[in-house]
Design brief:
It is built from seven helices and four strands, in the order H-E-E-H-H-E-H-H-E-H-H. It is of the alpha+beta class. It has a four-stranded mixed beta sheet with strand order 3-2-1-4. Helix 6 runs antiparallel to helix 7. It is globular and about 50 Å long.
Length: 186
């Protein structure tokens, strides 16, 4: 196993375990609401990792507060009420991410390999969560938006959002993600 594969596995496990811990805690925090979105939320360049969730009730509150249409808020996790509630579950991911970037800076992995690594990790985390039926709980909708979102995404990050979405979301959610990504590009 290469150093890159080891770091990829470490990042995968940290993000997966962080999501599981988050799920265990958030179910209590939103027990009287219905979750429609559960996404990894990252600053540009994966400087940090967090989870953002959206409930139907919090979306209604946000739309009322901002005066914007519901659909305008659905893909804006920095405004979501339940964003960053348990950031501590993801602190260990940052030094691993830094080590992965060092592999890139040292020329051991290309830009495309770096991009593919992050996509693979995020897709695997959500695929495991879905396979283990971790979202089969009364607080979750039957069809939940999954994936990754970034604060102020670059064109490359918008492409990553779409690629991850295609792998982990229903056609209904993926179509909405594609529409939102088109909006972000324009």
């Amino acid at each position: 196993m290469t150093v890159t594969e080891i770091k990829k596995n470490e990042l995968n496990n940290i993000l997966y375990n962080g999501c599981i811990r988050y799920l265990d805690n958030i179910v209590i925090d939103v027990r009287n609401e219905n979750i429609s979105a559960f996404v990894l939320y990252c600053s540009s360049g994966y400087q940090n990792f967090d989870v953002a969730i959206l409930t139907h009730q919090s979306l209604q509150r946000l739309a009322k507060k901002t005066g914007h249409e519901l659909s305008e808020q659905e893909f804006n996790p920095c405004e979501w009420e339940y964003m960053g509630l348990h950031s501590e579950f993801f602190y260990e991911a940052v030094p691993i991410k830094d080590e992965i970037y060092e592999l890139h800076y040292d020329g051991l992995i290309t830009e495309e390999e770096l991009r593919a690594l992050f996509i693979d990790v995020i897709v695997d985390v959500f695929s495991r969560i879905k396979a283990e039926k971790r979202l089969a709980n009364s607080v979750f909708d039957d069809d939940v938006l999954l994936g990754v979102m970034f604060s102020d995404p670059s064109v490359n990050e918008i492409n990553i959002i779409e690629e991850v979405s295609k792998a982990v979301n229903s056609n209904n959610w993926h179509d909405k993600v594609v529409k939102n990504c088109k909006f972000l590009r324009d």
